[in-house]
Design a protein that fits this description.
Elements: E1 3-5, E2 8-16, E3 23-24, E4 27-31, E5 37-42, E6 45-49, E7 52-56, E8 63-64, E9 69-77, E10 88-90
Amino acid sequence: MVNSWSGGYQGQVTVTDTGTSPKNGWKVGWTFPGNQQITSLWNGMYTQSSQQVTVTNMPYNEAINPGSSVTVGFTANYSGTNAAPSSVTCS
């Protein structure tokens, strides 16, 4: 979490190429444990179905060179508790 306020917050996910060759195209996914709802996202395209979120690259950040990374930021609303996802997947 980058920042928070009553009923909302700003988060981010960083995708890093730890390999030895460039990666062309990436996808990140996670499941919110509560009722968090993304309201805006930058540096990626997202879909959210209930608690499941999938983020894919934009055309301008599709390629990630070895040792480089892309950071995706977002804002979200919630009510009740705001627990972090227990796992994030990346492919």
